[in-house]
Amino acid sequence: MFSFNMDFFSKRCVWVNGPVIVGAGPSGLAVGACLKEQGTPFVILERSDCIASLWQKRTYDRLKLHLPKQFCQLPKLPFPENYPEYPNKKQFVDYLESYARHFDINPQFNESVQSAQYDEAFDLWRVNTVSTDGSEVEYICQWLIVATGENAEKVFPEIDGLRDFQGEIIHASDYKSGKKYEGKKVLVVGCGNSGMEVSLDLCNHNAKPHMVVRSAVHVLPREIMGKSTFELAILLMKWLPLFLVDKILLICAWFIFGNTKNYGLRKPVEGPLELKNTKGKTPVLDIGAIERIRSGEIKVVPGIKKFSKNNVELVNGESLEIDAVVMATGYRSNVPYWLKENQMFSENGFPKSPFPHGWKGQAGLYAVGFTRRGLAGASADAINIAHDIGKVHKEDVGKKRQQIVPTLRRCISTF
């Protein structure tokens, strides 16, 4: 990497002799490690001041991996042997930090990508960033790897009267612990894994959670007869068709939970694996919330009609007095806000091509971590991307570097 800097320009122009990776979460680290192994240089741009900012700054304290560690490790470096089967938040962050040290990955922190666009005239990508100190840089590269992930921005729905509510309103990304909610009535909006776990955590701290369930949801036990449900599903799919594996999982869930419809949790028409494959909707892996729902400690309520100062009116006409609201309403991709292209990514910020083909676009554009298949999917993407870029011979890269010097000078002259 080398740069041109002229005092009368506020923006530096930097040529990267390899790909630019946007995002220093697990996906960005994974592809960085794979590139490092084959000797390909790269630059990782990260808007936060740390790696894996979602895990470090926007997760609740009790969070653990939902899947066994062997399905969540990144390429080239497994979890430490002394880690439990389901590592907690601190252990996972420690693993990621040691991963970055092991592969000598040093992201450019506090650099937020404002735009990235392919310049057909120069046959290059131009990536513009702004740092926290206000300085601007344009990175120029042959390859651009989008690693900002599926959960870059929180989803905060607009609900009638929400601004009139006088209690605390936070997103699940800002929730840390139920300790401060002891004795309070808390409305948890959302019934995915986050909604279930936040509700359970509130119970454990003697709060009174009401969980809003608007749509049908699959709830599976995290383990069946001491074996990971996810691992069991993978094993069964080696021998049985998907629809039959779905039936087996649902029968097991029925034996363990009973009919969840009796608790206000309707099941979708599609099976859990089919729904995951077709719509990317992950089933809830229960770690204790269902038992609290059965006992009435977590109360399941239908959709919200409107809020008022201290109350919420539900679609069934019931009115609840509440003290606080936690929006467990999920996240979304932010790719459409900064990536100026419409061939690879759709309007929702996910690749248009279905798994397993969504990792590669045109003109040196790649995506890692958008498979809706967790860390295992991100790892597979990272390996594919590094292998694809690695096919370019070093001589070709050297020739491109020699050609790019006059191009950079022309580029600077247009600022």
TrEMBL record:
Coiled coil: none annotated. It comes from the Eukaryota. It catalyses: indole-3-pyruvate + NADPH + O2 + H(+) = (indol-3-yl)acetate + CO2 + NADP(+) + H2O. The keyword Phosphoprotein does not apply. Pfam families: FMO-like (PF00743). Its cofactor is FAD. Its EC number is 1.-.-.-. InterPro entries: Auxin_biosynth/cation_transpt, FAD/NAD-bd_sf, Flavin_mOase-like. This is Flavin-containing monooxygenase.
